[in-house]
Amino acid sequence: MKTNPIVGQGTPLHLWQTSRQLAQLPAIDILDLVPEGSRAVIIAPHPDDEVLGCGGFLQLLAAAGRPLQLISVTDGSASHPGSRRWPVERLSAVRPQESVEALRRLGMPLHSLKWLRGGFADSRVAARESALIEFIERHLRANDVVFTTWREDGHCDHEAVGRASAEAAKRVGARVHELPVWTWHWATPEDSSLPWHRARKILLSPPLVARKRHAIHAFASQLEGDPRIGLPPVLAPYVLERLLQPFEVVFL
């Protein structure tokens, strides 16, 4: 079994801020990646990944009137194992509600945003990867532009969703781009294992970052651990700061 690289406090923010690799990434316009006539499909392993990975450029897509389809693969109910404060039943209900509030804070057009919930088991997506491919394929069109988590992101669900999304997109002829989310935690700034040649920056203005920060704070369950069992928050401050830089990265 692959070792879980998401441990400790991860790579300090200042190392990413001084990264030569990040500094020299070419910038790209999200509206060039999702041209008029195309739909952006965001495939998130858990409720919150859509905001953590692309809460900045989602605002740009919505402002430009691009059609949006969000697919939440799981309900995120396994984020607090063993917690009596955040049991599975509570998380199953709360986490999707947190996503609704976060999307509202981003200014998403909730009246027209299409949102599908896959109902796959949190932390066990890989066991049903074939079923996930078929599920995603049913909801994709040939002119879609898919954004999903990177196939090497470090979290088992993120990787399974990345693989399944890529295969489903291939079957229908859609384009797919991958988003590093937990990568910023475990990777090192000059890490040669990252596909830097495929990486592009989508630049975010301060108001876009501020709204993304506000949206992330809708995920109360993820900002709170359970001290009684020694469970730290999933989204600790040092995790958030790495995800709130003035750009988002996509692997083309």
TrEMBL record:
GO molecular function annotation: hydrolase activity, acting on carbon-nitrogen (but not peptide) bonds, in linear amides
User: Which PANTHER family does its entry note?
Assistant: BLR3841 PROTEIN, N-ACETYLGLUCOSAMINYL-PHOSPHATIDYLINOSITOL DE-N-ACETYLASE-RELATED
Q: Which Pfam families match?
A: PIG-L (PF02585)
What is this protein identified as?
A: Acetylglucosaminylphosphatidylinositol deacetylase
Q: What is the lineage of its organism?
A: Bacteria, Pseudomonadati, Pseudomonadota, Gammaproteobacteria, Pseudomonadales
